[in-house]
Amino acid sequence: MNGMLKLSLHPILTCLIAAVWLANGLLCKVLNLAPRHEQIVASILGNTYSREWTVSIGIAEISNSLPYSHQTFDLIVIFLAAHEIRNVKEREEFFKELRRVCKPGGAIYVTEHLRDANNFAAYTIGAFHFYARERWHTCFQQADLTLTKQIRTTPFMTTFVLSPNGNAY
User: Would the pTM count as exceeding 0.70?
Assistant: First the structure.
């Protein structure tokens, strides 16, 4: 693909993907025009709060459809979700995007289970779903993020505090 075509396709594809996120979040989940989404949530989490959870998911999807300006956020929190990006390059690109939207002096908090002895004791073979500490460190380095602090928040979870320039607050 030549460079000019690639440059002109990128904004179009970005807008199309954003439109899908917006439509799915707003129409299917928030406005409940596709009740199967709430049914799926209810089957996983129970009926008590399935509507509230479905709306929350919809709002999150709507926010994913909005492109953020460079250096928008002082604080970004990723909680038990980044390990679901299974492709190494996609995960690195995700963290590069977090670096792009994080203000200088801002911080990115990433809390995850690790593939370690504690999680093997708790989850047995399920711990293979998590990544080892070294893999996270490599990912952060590839995204040009500085690991400013590492906190063992529970025996099973670790929080990494990252900064785009090494000066997280």
Answer: no
Alpha-carbon span 1 to 169, nearest angstrom: 43
Maximum distance among all alpha carbons in the chain? 53
Supply the pLDDT for residue 151: 96
DSSP, residue by residue, 30-77: IS-SSTHHHHHHHHHH-STTHHHHHHHHHHHHHHHTSPPPTT-EEEEE
Which tokens hold the place of 121? 């004791």
Mean pLDDT by 10 residues, the chain (169 residues): 58 71 75 85 86 81 71 89 88 90 93 95 94 97 95 95 77
Architecture of domain 73-163: 3-Layer(aba) Sandwich (3.40)
Q: Where, residue-wise, is CATH 3.40.50.150 in the chain?
A: 73-163
Residue 55 · residue 30 · CB < 8 Å: yes
Q: What distance in Å separates the CA atoms of residue 78 and residue 159, rounded to the nearest whole number?
A: 9
